[in-house]
Amino acid sequence: MTNFVEELTWRGMIHQMMPGTDELLSKEQVTAYVGFDPTADSLHIGHLCSIMILRHFQRCGHKPLALIGGATGMIGDPSGKSQERNLLNEETLKHNVECIRKQLSKFLDFDSDAPNRAELVNNYDWMKDISFLDFSRDIGKHITVNYMMAKDSVKKRLNGEARDGLSFTEFTYQLLQGYDFLYLNEHKNCKLQMGGADQWGNITTGSELIRRINGTECYALTCPLITKSDGTKFGKTEGGNIWLNPEYTSPYKFYQFWLNVSDEDAKRYIRIFTNIGKEECESLTAEHDAAPHLRLLQKRLAKDVTCMVHSEADYEAAASASEILFGNSASSEDLKGIDESLLLSVFEGVPQFRFQRSVLEGEVKASDFLTDICPVFFSKSEARKMMQGGGVSINKEKTYDHSRIMTKADLVDDRYIVLQRGKKNYYLLIAE
User: Fold this and answer.
1) Is residue 310 among the annotated active site residues?
2) Sequence-separated (6 or more) residues with CB below 8 Å from residue 384
């Protein structure tokens, strides 16, 4: 078996690890779990580091459990949060759990006959029938309030970082997560819990609960919280989260996110978010440093992650669209070959103008069309001057003749005209 700790170490994916974890992993096949909070019906790239840890864990010969917090998702985890999250009803949680199950199956082998095949578990299954009195008597008595209060996630909330303090509901979260570890240890022989750095307090509560109840040792390992090189939060854009669900974040936008990361971030992300080996990562980094303008790391990162999360076909469509729209050699015919949904995804957020299709049945000049019909320009003289200078492209073809007639033949998918003004200003003109 490949050494799991060594694998994560060179990838920069270990933040904290309980003593004895490496020795345990070296002597036997170990079962470990990572929890996912089903507060939405899709995971996002903020979850990817934890997912990749499970993926590497399985590739190194160990058995991964993906725990969906169907019960704890009804409460909300205070770790790293400044306010209590909204509680979800059972119907919504059931839907979210099923969607997350499908997404995780892209990364982990749940279906083979291998002894280390992954399993998906839902803590609602073992928590739904436990009464408050039973939990207090059988579990709560083993962990003191002093122990729970000492956790950073609790202290931060109580020391004024949260405007509304910390509810009892959230305070109990670490004990409930600790019970998950206890249950999986007793029923699945799970000896290791993994997660993000903000989960260290919750994870160690679980290992302490197991030690106090069963007298056995269990272990903890956390990965660092990923940030960008400028210190800002990873995975957040002006438009919000980068989701793994293509309906929320299109494969094109997903691909573009990775393509546009900084050089410093690309050097870290290529190790964390791909399966590329150490030697190849080092070779790619050296090639990138020799010619950073080629953005070799970003291109490989965008390819591998897009193929892994979506598909090779989605990657090829996104890369092709990117080359057609922003490359120098694309033609109008190339543009007309792009699927309509991809075209709309690419131009989501750019200025749009709508016009009546019947306008193209008349003798309307380009300069008139781009001022009177779709006011891309403030005046006809401005339009004429920019066209004559080669600063205007209609469907990727430069238009020097301001008097050219616009016709229905200019429509992409019989509805759209892609107008480029200068190097970076795009407009989508839509016929109705």
Assistant:
1) no
2) 367, 402
16 is catalytic: no
Q: State how far the Cα of 220 lies from the Cα of 222, in Å rounded to an integer.
A: 7
Structure tokens at 157: 């909330």
Residue given tokens 């119907």 in the structure block: 91
pLDDT of residue 145: 80
Active-site hit among 236, 299, 336, 380: 236
- In degrees, rounded to 5, the angle at the alpha carbon of residue 75 between the alpha carbons of residues 74 and 79 is 130
Of the candidates 174, 177, 306, 371, the residue annotated as catalytic is 177
Q: Annotated catalytic, 365?
A: no
Exposed/middle/buried for residue 15 (C-beta within 10 Å: 0-12, 13-18, 19+): middle
> Both ends of the chain: CA-CA distance in Å?
61
> What are the C-alpha distances in Å from 348 to residues 83, 134, 341, 357, 412?
32, 53, 10, 21, 16
Written as one string, the DSSP assignment of 222-281 is: EEPPPB-TTSPBTTEETTEE-BSSTTTS-HHHHHHHHHTS-HHHHHHHHHHSS---HHHH
Q: For 388, how many CA atoms within 13 A lie in the half-sphere containing its CB?
A: 7
d(CA 117, CA 76): 29
Rg (C-alpha) for the chain, rounded Å, is 27
Confirm if 252 and 317 have CB atoms less than 8 A apart. Answer: yes
Q: Is 233 a catalytic residue?
A: yes
Residue 407 is a catalytic residue: no
Active site residue 177: yes
Active site residue 39: yes
- Range of weakest confidence among 26-35, 292-301, 359-368: 359-368
Helix (H, G, I), strand (E, B) or coil at 309: helix
Q: Which residue in the block uniquely carries the two structure tokens 């759209």?
A: 416
pLDDT in tens, 391-410: 999 988 899 999 999 999 99
pLDDT band at 231 (very low <50, low <70, confident <90, very high): confident
Please count the other Cβ atoms lying within 10 Å of the Cβ belonging to residue 321: 24
Annotated catalytic residue within 233, 354, 357, 415: 233
Pairing of strands 352-355, 240-241: unpaired
Catalytic, out of 47, 56, 63, 300: 47
